[in-house]
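Justification of resources, computational component.

The compute hours requested in this renewal are based largely on the per-chain cost of generating structure records like the one below. Each record pairs the submitted sequence with a full structure-token output. That output is archived, and it is also reused by downstream analysis tasks.
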Amino acid sequence: MIELVHRNIDFEKDRDYVLECHCRVNYACDAPWMRKLPYEDYRRQWFGLNSQITGFYWALQTTARDGRALAEILDLKDGSRAGYLWAVFEKDTESGFAFAELREIYIEPELRRQGLSAQAYVYVEAWARTQGAAVLRAGTGCENAASIAMHEQMGFYTYRLEFEKEL
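The structure output for this chain reads:
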């Protein structure tokens, strides 16, 4: 079994890598009408939207400052990158309901189907329990079959659906 090495994101050194991973996750999970674009065109558009980049990176950095968030690069033992993950912890001050949300997980294409995503999910689930979360939430695109299958394999169930209509 390949073992992942987790390390905190270095927000200066890892910036380009994390942004590239985020763009790939967005594309895989985007609406079917957006994925009609070839990835390189999608990527060019996304990286051309400064507000997208700044907003995402600000949210990632802000949640990472919270001692109850994960923002990590996933490496292999040889130091090569395997991917990244981002998870946050939330607790409602009024009800006390606490949950963790796996915002993004990305595994490099050449390392997929080797159990690394499952390993990362187990890691995040253990972390969520230590934070006191009652549930772990995660989302994906409606046509991202590999991600949907992974969520189901890891014991997730559908609790909300969102709809969009192309105009």
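Strands lie at 5-8, 70-75, 81-91, 98-107, 135-138. Residues 107 and 117 are 7 Å apart (CA to CA).
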